[in-house]
From TrEMBL:
<dbReference type="GO" id="GO:0004340">
    <property type="term" value="F:glucokinase activity"/>
</dbReference>
<dbReference type="GO" id="GO:0005524">
    <property type="term" value="F:ATP binding"/>
</dbReference>
<dbReference type="InterPro" id="IPR022672">
    <property type="entry name" value="Hexokinase_N"/>
</dbReference>
<keyword id="KW-0067">ATP-binding</keyword>
<dbReference type="InterPro" id="IPR022673">
    <property type="entry name" value="Hexokinase_C"/>
</dbReference>
<dbReference type="GO" id="GO:0005829">
    <property type="term" value="C:cytosol"/>
</dbReference>
<dbReference type="GO" id="GO:0005739">
    <property type="term" value="C:mitochondrion"/>
</dbReference>
<feature type="domain" description="Hexokinase N-terminal">
    <location>
        <begin position="3"/>
        <end position="193"/>
    </location>
</feature>
<protein>
    <recommendedName>
        <fullName>Phosphotransferase</fullName>
        <ecNumber>2.7.1.-</ecNumber>
    </recommendedName>
</protein>
<dbReference type="Pfam" id="PF03727">
    <property type="entry name" value="Hexokinase_2"/>
</dbReference>
<dbReference type="GO" id="GO:0005536">
    <property type="term" value="F:D-glucose binding"/>
</dbReference>
<feature type="domain" description="Hexokinase C-terminal">
    <location>
        <begin position="199"/>
        <end position="444"/>
    </location>
</feature>
<comment type="similarity">
    <text>Belongs to the hexokinase family.</text>
</comment>
<keyword id="KW-0547">Nucleotide-binding</keyword>
<comment type="pathway">
    <text>Carbohydrate degradation; glycolysis; D-glyceraldehyde 3-phosphate and glycerone phosphate from D-glucose: step 1/4.</text>
</comment>
<dbReference type="GO" id="GO:0006096">
    <property type="term" value="P:glycolytic process"/>
</dbReference>
<dbReference type="Pfam" id="PF00349">
    <property type="entry name" value="Hexokinase_1"/>
</dbReference>
């Protein structure tokens, strides 16, 4: 089998993977401690666009951290003022409390330089923390484990809201952390606010994951108090679908995926995410190209590949997007990309550039088809319960935003899995700023639900 054949996900596989995801979803709704955590978020409702107020949000989940002040004007619109703060490798892998002190310090910096809030006033904050957390209330939860290259020490099992609040208190910063939000939940809330209702919020960025609104009766592992019908009959569930099929029962894992996984800081975890998200797509391509070079099928004019090809995560997924600006058969952008990776022009044959572009396309298409399986797993029951009306989905993240034809490939695969009628009803919207606005909406929801300050 050549490499292209190994990267193809046929229609049959789409159904198998979708079924496996649904099986893991229902297992996760029934039991605690499952791989696909199906985390109850204690968010009992979605915004309808009439919400008002000013809230702070802190967003940690990828390369940067953001502090935002969000003003919701109650007519589906908002304004946002924000500042990015760099998260260094040392912070990602050092002591957990160091990372959280830095976050508190950044909030302090934002308040003194950018915030419109009055002196002496305490400010409510929604905390978007985009990692799996075992949530016990809308404003508390213990870290299950880091993903996406984060590996701060002594973190697992710690309550992330309590830790952040302690750090804020120690630094005398007048902020109350009132809500803990996953970025998918934030995206769902933000998209619901902006479009007057939504069904799913999902991220296809550095990592991947999705959240949706589930009937309380289906979340069997919840204790009776949490099922309190006064609060509403539904709750947002954060699926953590990135952790699907760690047993590799249905995912067609290639030898290059296998190397990416075993060299990662969390082998045999996040198996689904490692085939889909921006942190890994470039790395899969790099491992494949190194292999093809050894077999003299790629850049065979040069005996040694430039450093980027020999460095873990040395090939950024953004370069695949750049290469795919070339349409089929063209190679202008791809040659520039190869130049940026340190390959000298005389070593690049037309064939090499085409191989780079084609492999990027196949790895991206495969990721989009897997992504569709996860979306279809959630949409399917919705589509059959309500046979009419739009199914609004809010998506965010660098892959969905920048990877050429990713959304179209998702749609094509949804069409295969769900059929043409259902696919036509799916309205996909880019929920940019989802995490920031969503955290503000979640802070508002927490206050509405009467959550006590810590
Ligand atoms: C995390 C999720 C998050 C997703 C997207 C995954 O690695 O486990 O909590 O929502 O990335 O950021």
């Amino acid at each position: 089998m050549n490499f292209s054949e190994k990267l193809i996900v046929d229609d049959n596989a789409l159904f198998k993977i979708k079924n496996e995801i649904q099986a893991e979803f229902s297992h996760g709704l029934n039991y605690h401690g499952t791989d696909v955590s199906m985390i109850p978020t204690f968010v009992y409702g979605l915004p309808d666009g009439t919400e008002c107020g000013t809230y702070l949000s802190l967003d940690l989940g990828g390369t940067n951290m953001r502090v935002c002040e969000v003003n919701l004007s109650g007519d589906r619109n908002f304004s946002i003022s924000q500042e990015k703060y760099k998260i260094t490798e040392d912070l990602k892998t050092g002591e957990f409390t160091e990372l959280f002190s830095y976050m508190a310090k950044s909030i302090g910096h934002f308040i003194s330089t950018k915030s419109q809030s009055k002196q002496g006033q305490r400010i409510p904050l929604g905390f978007t923390f985009s990692f799996p957390v075992d949530q016990s209330a809308i404003n508390s939860g213990k870290l299950i484990g880091f993903t996406k290259g984060f590996n701060a020490k002594n973190a697992v099992g710690k309550d992330v809201v309590e830790t952040l609040q302690d750090c804020l208190n120690k630094q005398n910063i007048p902020v109350d952390v009132v809500a803990l939000v996953n970025d998918t939940v934030g995206t769902l809330l933000a998209h619901s606010y902006q479009s007057g209702g939504a069904k799913i919020g999902a991220i296809f960025g550095t990592g991947t994951n999705g959240a949706y609104l589930e009937d309380l009766t289906e979340i069997k592992k919840l204790d009776d108090e949490a099922k309190n019908p006064k609060a509403g009959s539904k709750m947002v569930v954060n699926t953590e679908w990135g952790n699907v099929d760690n047993a590799r029962s249905v995912l067609p894992i290639t030898e290059w995926d296998d190397i990416v996984d075993s060299a990662s800081i969390n082998p045999r975890r996040q198996s689904f995410e490692k085939l889909i998200s921006g942190m890994y797509l470039g790395e899969i391509l790099r491992r494949l190209l190194v292999d093809l070079h050894a077999k003299q099928e790629f850049l065979s004019n040069t005996s040694t590949l430039p450093e980027a090809f020999n460095t873990q995560y040395g090939l950024d997924t953004a370069l695949m997007s750049d290469s795919l600006r070339d349409s089929d058969g063209e190679t202008t952008h791809t040659k520039q990309v190869l130049g940026a990776l340190g390959v000298s022009a005389e070593n690049v044959r037309e064939l090499d550039a085409q191989l780079f572009r084609d492999a990027s396309q196949l790895i991206g298409l495969r990721a989009a088809r897997f992504s569709a399986c996860a979306l279809a797993a959630v949409i399917e029951s919705e589509a059959s319960e309500n046979a009419a009306g739009d199914i609004n989905i809010g998506l965010d993240g660098s892959v969905i935003e920048f990877f050429p034809r990713f959304e179209q490939s998702i749609r094509d695969a949804l069409n295969v899995i769900l059929g043409n009628q259902a696919e036509k009803r799916i309205k996909i919207g880019l929920a940019k700023d989802g995490s920031g606005v969503g955290a503000a909406l979640c802070a508002l929801q927490a206050i509405k639900q009467g959550v006590a300050k810590k």
